[in-house]
Every structure is written in structure tokens, then in C-alpha cells.
Amino acid sequence: MPQTQRHGRRNPSGDRRPSRTAAPAGRRSARRWALPVAAVAVLALLASAVLRSTVADLYLVPSGSMEPLLRQGDRISVDRDAYRSAPVERGDVVVVDGEGSFVPYDSRPAPLRWGSDALQWLGLVPDTTAYVKRVAAVGGDTVSCCSAGGLLEVNGEEIAEDYLAGPPPASRIEFTAEVPAGRVFLLGDNRHASVDSRSLLGAPGGGMIRESKVIGRVDAIAWPPGRRTGIPAGGGR
Q: Per the CB 3.0–4.6 Å rule, which of 48, 84, 93, 110 could disulfide with 235?
């Protein structure tokens, strides 16, 4: 009965030992693949950086608080120049810096903050201090909820919010707030699953966010491809 041929070579004592040629070849093959993959990754990061600094500021939506307009996992394009010469308007969907309002100030050591900021800027992880919400009221407005019909009211006028995730009431939390000049009152479209100005009604500032904290207006859903669409001023109502 023929015996199966076994690969290898004999050492001086006559024992067989495994061939050492396979492992180096495998390592060489892995190195050949690793270099192009690393180059592609670096190029992708550079492309993302260039895109964010010259074309659009991109943010990853981490939750469903703005459904149905924005879904968890969407990447949104934010126009940072939208309010350089124009005021923030009711109905606009905006991204705001929530540090010091929605979230406490970051007390981590500077190197950790810088590393986290870099990953967030590249769009690789969600920005934990950025919040996307809709502007319900601006400076000088009185906003309240709810009317007899369960609707939001601004300056005594009912607002038909056809972008909400569910039927009335527009808020399960009743509130009335007078918005000072230079501040905005923010609400999520998925009103019953949103951390927004209502959550800060008892805090300093009374839930009103400074306009200086507005990073920009959301002007498009950039990713995934099947959901790419523009969002005009007023939030695409």
C-alpha cells in the first residue's frame, strides 16, 4: 500500500521537520496586501479631511431623535456659513454644540480630548457633543405646548408640525418658555424620544441655547446613497 508523501525535509538526525518556506511566503503575501490596504485607508482619511474642510461638514446621526427626517446612522452635510449673514429661522434643522447645556463640559486630559476630536472630525465616530434638532422658536418668541388640540404654539399660533414622528400631543411634557434675544428653543422631530430644550427647562438658561452654539444648518443627507437628499431652509417641511 503506497504511503502518502509527506512534505518536509530531514534534519541531520533523520527526523522530519516541517518546511520553513511556507511561513515566510505567507508573511510576504500578507505584507504585499497590508501596504495597499494601509495606503487606501490613509487616502480615505485624507479625502474625508479635505471634504470636511473644503466642501461640507459631515456629522453622523447617532440616534433616532429626528426621525422620520433623519435616521440613526445617516451622515448629514452641515452648512457652517448658513447664518453668517442670515438669522436662524424657525423650522431650520441645525447642529449645535451641546457642551455645557445638553452635556457637561469635557474634563478629560487634553491629549484624550484631541484624539477624540480628531476621530470625530474625520467622521469615524459620532460627535458626542453635537446635537441635531429643529428650531422651534427664536429670540423674542413665546413657545408653549400644548394647545387644546395637542399642538405646539408659537406666539399664540398653533403650528401644524407634519414632520413629527407620531400623532399629537406634540409633547408629553407641558411647557411655556419666553426665548430671550440671541437664543433658540430646540426640539426633536421624534418628540417622545428626544433630549432637547425641554430637558433643560429647570437649568440655567431655561432650555434656551445660545445662537453662538449653532454650528450650522443641515442642508442634506449625504449617506447612505439611497437616502441622499437635500434639506432646504425650514427643514424640508
A: 93
